[in-house]
Amino acid sequence: MPTTANRPAVDGLLVDMDGLFRHWRDTGARRGEQLAQLPAGTFDTYAYRHPSYRLAQLGVLTDQQWADDVARRLTAAFGPRALDAIGPWRADRGETDPVMLDLLTQARRHVPVGVLSNTTDAFRADLAHHGLADAFDHVFPTAELHVDKPAPLAFRTAAQAMGLPPDRLFFTDDEPPYVAGALHAGLRAELFTGPEAFAAALTRLGIPVTATKTLAPAA
């Protein structure tokens, strides 16, 4: 926390994970589909658009139970060869964003930062996989909260766990409905549009950060 008289306009940050600090290219899913000779986009339908995914995000199913359910339904639809797709799909844990992680480090010098992600109980293991086990002061996978964004309760629960009133917390997300949910819960919130805009928003709040790193060109 700052020791100067220039106190930030908020006492904490609450941020989304995917689309900000981690990016999914779906390379594992596409590789698995090719390996098993499945139609492109099969995992989109059988994994992420199926109700079981929401159940895993809410903690009704574990991440492994969800993956097992995906495997069963793929096998029923495409035969045993579909199992060849599971390994590459599960091995892909996304890619981290060095620009945003640098901004996160800078911001934590001034205020605590929590991450609220609509995700399964694999989230903490994913953070550790990327070397980010200690990157956030508070970690809120919705599978642990048993409520997901954009429900206002998700944001109020996170704020309470951080020991902050909602109006002293700033939230950003790349999904407009989630920003609307945060605003309804009483948080200050803005739509995430990129690192430079994020850095500018934090600076306006009295949290001085600079987007100094640059991303490597896409392969």
Structural descriptors:
alpha/beta, single chain, Rossmann fold, elongated, five-stranded parallel beta sheet, 11 helices
Task: Compile the SSE list and pairings.
Elements: E1 12-15, E2 22-23, H1 27-35, H2 42-48, H3 51-57, H4 63-78, H5 86-91, E3 95-96, H6 98-107, E4 113-117, H7 123-129, E5 138-141, H8 142-145, H9 152-162, E6 169-173, H10 176-184, E7 188-191, H11 195-204
Parallel strand pairs: 1-4, 1-6, 4-5, 6-7
Antiparallel strand pairs: 2-3
Helix pairs in contact: 3-4
Could you walk me through the main structural features you see in this protein, from its secondary elements to its overall organization?
This protein is 44% helix and 12% strand. The model is unreliable at 215-219 (pLDDT under 50). With 219 residues, the protein is an alpha/beta fold. It contains eleven helices and seven strands. A five-stranded parallel beta sheet has the order 5-4-1-6-7. Strands 2-3 form a two-stranded antiparallel ribbon. It is elongated and about 65 Å long. The chain folds into two domains: 12-24 and 95-204, Rossmann fold (3-Layer(aba) Sandwich), CATH 3.40.50; 27-91. The protein starts with 11 loop residues before the first strand and ends in a 15-residue tail after the last helix. Helix 3 runs antiparallel to helix 4 (63-78).
